[in-house]
Design brief:
single chain; alpha+beta; Serine Threonine Protein Phosphatase 5, Tetratricopeptide repeat; Cathepsin B, Chain A; 2 domains; 7-stranded antiparallel sheet; 13 helices; 9 strands; TPR_rpt; TPR-like_helical_dom_sf
Length: 305
């Protein structure tokens, strides 16, 4: 028997994003111009090492001390002479940070304006002869019509809006934020952010996922998925008393959500309180819903203990 959090995310979270234009800042517009994010380290890339270099910049900005050389071992694929996006995302999670992908191109400006560097993937070649390249967006100069990048061997490299947008579009506008668990994206959407945090929970990084779920609950106080995630992380961290108190408080807020009773039953059973666990599991079944089969399995397993 196990506590349910991934299943809750699958039921609760849904949504999709459309692709819209970037919406570049304008001189004398609502955003400062020119604008640069402060205190972003720069690491010049070695041959084929733009992925490790860009990732090192973002991770160090987020508070993780790591070099491009260290990251190369994690993300670089020699046969491809580059780094896959999936490897970049996995490395962020291994280093205890939240990897948040931009939902749409227009989010780029709001994130940079909030002080969040964005790792982007460009194709500097042609569609039939691609030259893939990672860079970090660190600001803009709207009067000059430039976005400012840490790119290749050049820090604060000005690149024309039109050139950047064209080369970025060839990757499907792939962009990634690297954030500590205490910080939300400026354009945060509950569905996307909680899905990103859930990957850490499934990796067993409960001490990282826990504050991230709490950060999410601060923004979305009625989020069932974040509420469940907090309780699961407390349980997985071995703090059964806090997990029990959390699930009981959550039941007061969500009295018809069976997943909370189900998870409370597991916590009670782990504390040797079988009769109370049976009662909680029965209450979960009474709540019904799409996870009822899971609740029934929990009850059966408690009876067999």
């Amino acid at each position: 028997m196990r506590l349910l959090v991934v299943a809750v995310l699958a039921v609760v979270l849904s949504g999709c994003a459309g692709r819209t234009g970037i919406g570049w800042p304008r001189p004398e517009g609502r955003l400062p111009d020119p604008y640069l994010i402060a205190e972003i380290p720069f690491y010049p890339q070695k041959v084929h090492q733009c992925g490790p270099a860009a990732l090192a910049m973002a991770l160090n900005w987020s508070g993780v001390s790591v070099s491009p050389q260290d990251l190369s071992v994690e993300v670089f694929t020699p046969s491809r002479k580059g780094s896959l996006q999936s490897a970049m995302i996995a490395a962020v999670r291994r280093h205890g940070r939240i990897a948040c992908l931009l939902a749409e191109p227009a989010d780029l400006i709001d994130e940079v304006a909030a002080g969040h560097p964005v790792v982007v993937l460009q194709n500097l070649g042609l569609s039939w002869i691609p030259l893939w390249h990672y860079a970090v967006v660190v600001g803009w100069d709207a009067a000059a019509g430039d976005v400012i990048l840490h790119s290749g061997t050049t820090p604060f490299k000005p690149t024309a809006f039109s050139t950047f947008e064209r080369t970025w579009a060839r990757s499907g506008f792939w962009g990634m934020l690297v954030l500590p668990p205490s910080r939300l994206p400026a354009t945060a959407k509950e569905t996307d952010y909680l899905a990103a945090v859930s990957h850490l929970e499934r990796m067993g990084r409960w001490k990282i996922a826990l504050p991230a779920y709490r950060t999410a609950l601060g923004r979305w106080p009625d989020s069932l998925a974040a509420t469940v995630g907090i309780g699961v992380c407390l349980y997985r961290s071995g703090d059964l008393a806090s997990a029990e108190a959390h699930f009981r408080a959550a039941i007061e807020q969500f009295p018809r959500e069976g997943v909370l009773f189900n998870n409370l039953a597991q916590v009670l059973l782990e504390q040797g309180r079988r009769d109370e666990a049976l009662q909680a599991a029965g209450q979960a079944i009474e709540c019904g819903g799409p996870l009822k089969a899971h609740f029934e399995q929990t009850l059966e397993e408690i009876r067999n203990r």
